[in-house]
Specification:
Elements: H1 2-26, H2 33-40, H3 44-56, E1 60-66, E2 74-79, E3 84-92, E4 95-102, E5 107-114, H4 122-142, E6 146-154, E7 157-159, E8 163-167, E9 172-176, H5 181-185, E10 189-192, H6 193-199, E11 221-226, E12 230-236, E13 239-241, H7 272-275, H8 277-283, H9 295-306, H10 310-334, E14 338-343, H11 350-359, E15 373-376, H12 383-398, H13 406-410
Parallel strand pairs: 3-6, 6-10, 11-14, 14-15
Antiparallel strand pairs: 1-2, 3-4, 4-5, 7-8, 8-9, 11-12, 12-13
Helix pairs in contact: 1-3, 2-3, 6-12
Length: about 400
């Protein structure tokens, strides 16, 4: 009976610590112990104990005193920097890299390697990625960080966080990720890059919320990842919807033309075959094959589009038309009114979102009563890397006792 009681007490304390951390991370303003008690419904005595554990373990620290409407001024609590971090990893069709992120949301180290992925095997890529991450791990530990693990963004269908079922753009399939040293050492959870990029758009998911975000932690939105190909994710009430097989939101493989070009997935007329980075560069006749995936080709595309090159403008117009069609269908199907664009299309500027919003009025049901917001990602480039780091950090937020030293709990 005593063992069962201990287990239940640990579970309850883990849950309560998680609630406190989650509440602080999702708040724009610093919170005092009294405010935490009101927000969480926990007693002041319980909050005091939990906060002491988090301060002793260097997760939180006391910040400035804040005025209150009654009683003595309270002391606000803030997330500590320099204590805990996690690694976001990504393998994409244009290279591989990592970002080490702490729970304050600061990137403490990052590296990206541009390369021709068609010339490398999966084993070579994982070995190369492992080598650069090991160096960063050493630096992080020398700075005093506890490394909480990692997560990996991949351009394909991932099941159970450990099996890459298929990645047409990489040419990999049925890949058991658990056999790689990097995955084992950092206890890496793998997921589709669009899902992880979508997580990076959710304020306070696992790092301190910034006060300038348009989005709120519980918002719903459709995220469209426009990289070499096109991926997508559905976020409902602040949670990614994965679906029964893990690939809900694969908007890039919705067909917009029954007699359109063949997509790399083998189907005909997919959105990706019109509006993906590679397809757009090739349609604009700027480059082909591997050269079409390079960032230099995108730079040329943008320059020619801005200068009014007819072939490029036509390719972009056709891609936008396909985007509008699929976004409209997704909004009608899911009844979600916010769409966030990431990747290459961010570089076309706010005029693109205004254009898509205007053209959506003819695609969305009851458009006179439905206000669809089309936004550019606030996160910027490499959203999937940051989202992967947040997924790894979230393990700590969900079960702090698994990572906090016993000495901090006993104090």
């Amino acid at each position: 009976m005593s063992a069962l009681r201990s287990i239940n007490q640990d579970d309850l304390r883990n849950h309560n610590l998680s609630v406190v951390l989650d509440t602080i991370l999702r708040s724009v303003e610093p919170m005092t112990r009294a405010e935490l008690a009101r927000a969480t419904g926990l007693t002041k005595a319980t909050i005091s104990l939990l906060v002491q554990i988090l301060i002793s373990s260097k997760v939180l620290h006391e910040a400035d005193s804040v005025s209150v409407h009654y009683g003595r001024p309270g002391t606000s609590l803030a997330v500590s920097v320099g204590s805990f971090c996690a690694f976001g990893l990504q393998i994409n069709t244009d290279g591989y890299g990592f970002a080490a992120v702490d729970i304050n949301g600061d990137v403490i180290d990052e590296q990206w390697v541009d390369c021709d992925m068609e010339q490398l095997t999966a084993n070579e890529v994982f070995d190369n990625l492992n080598n650069i991450v090991i160096d960063s791990e050493t630096k992080a530990r020398e700075l005093g960080y506890v490394i909480l693990g990692g997560a990996l963004a991949l351009p394909g269908v991932v099941i159970d966080g450990s099996i890459l079922l298929a990645s047409p753009n990489l040419g990999w399939k049925n890949l058991n990720l658990g056999r790689y040293e990097l995955v084992k050492r950092l206890n890496v959870f793998a997921a589709n890059e669009a899902n992880l990029a979508a997580i990076a758009q959710i304020p306070g998911f696992a790092t301190q919320r910034k006060n300038n975000s348009i989005m709120k932690p519980s918002d719903s939105f459709i995220y469209i990842s426009t990289d070499i190909g096109i991926g997508g994710a559905v976020v409902r009430d602040g949670h990614v919807v994965y679906g029964e097989n893990g690939f809900a939101g694969e908007i890039g493989h919705v067909s917009v033309s029954l007699d359109g070009p063949i997509c790399r997935c083998g189907r005909r007329g997919c959105l990706e075959a019109f509006a993906g980075r590679r397809a757009l560069v090739e349609t604009a006749r700027i480059a082909s094959g591997c050269d079409a995936t390079k960032i230099e080709a995108v730079n040329v595309l943008l320059e020619r589009w801005k200068s009014g090159d007819e072939i490029v403008v036509s390719a972009v117009d056709k891609a936008v038309e396909a985007l509008v069609s699929v976004i409209g269908s997704a909004v009608n199907l899911l009844d979600i009114n916010t769409v966030i664009l990431g990747g290459i299309w961010q570089r076309f500027g706010v005029g693109l979102t205004q254009r898509i919003s205007k053209e959506l009025t003819s695609e969305v049901l009851c458009s006179e009563a439905v206000n669809v917001r089309v936004l550019m990602s606030e996160v910027g480039g490499r959203s999937a890397l940051l989202g992967a780091a947040q997924v790894a950090l979230r393990r700590f937020i969900d079960k702090p006792l698994d990572y906090i030293e016993q000495s901090s709990i006993d104090e």
